[in-house]
Amino acid sequence: MLDARRIRFQNQLMSRSDPIDTPSAAPGQRSGRRSRRGDHAAVEAVSTLTIPIANWQAKLGWAFTMWGLIPVLGLFLGLFGVMLGILGYRRVRRRPEDLGIRHALGAIILGGIEVIVNLAGLGCIVKGILTITAS
Question: Is the dihedral angle over the CA atoms 105, 107, 112, 116 positive or is it negative?
Fold first, then answer.
């Protein structure tokens, strides 16, 4: 059953006419349609359902940031997530067929937020302990 759905979905992908691949104007002439930056992201969003992501840096960075939601661990895991997210993003920029740009950007953004929030939380804890012991 799952294989039949996957084959049906792949057939829909192959029969889909992609505006990037089909030239609408002769070479040297401008077409009426502007190129959008999100075209590649839309294709990736559909194709990641059937094609496994080979970009292990982006996937591992995303996993680290998800586990980094645990307080205090997020300081270290968020930092590792940001580093691996940057490596994964660089890999996608070099080889767009690898996919994983959403995982990489998510790891960078969420990992950065985790590091900042965990630093602020640890700072508040240390300040609270210092005020209690000083009293």
Answer: positive
Phi and psi dihedrals of 124, rounded to 5?
Answer: -65, -40
**Where would I find the H helices in 16-72?**
39-47, 56-67
CA distances from 71 to 31, 65, 74, 84 (A): 52, 12, 6, 20
Two tokens, residue 127: 């300040």
Amino acid at 54: A
d(CA 83, CA 102): 15
Confidence band, pLDDT 50/70/90 cuts, at residue 55: confident
Q: 102-127: per-residue pLDDT in tens?
A: 999 999 999 999 999 999 999 999 99
Contacts of 122 (CB under 8 A, 6+ apart): 72, 75
31 secondary structure, DSSP code: P
Domain residue extents for the chain:
1-24+34-51, 55-135
122 close to 75: Cβ distance less than 8 angstroms = yes
101-134 vs 73-94: helix crossing angle, rounded to 10: 160
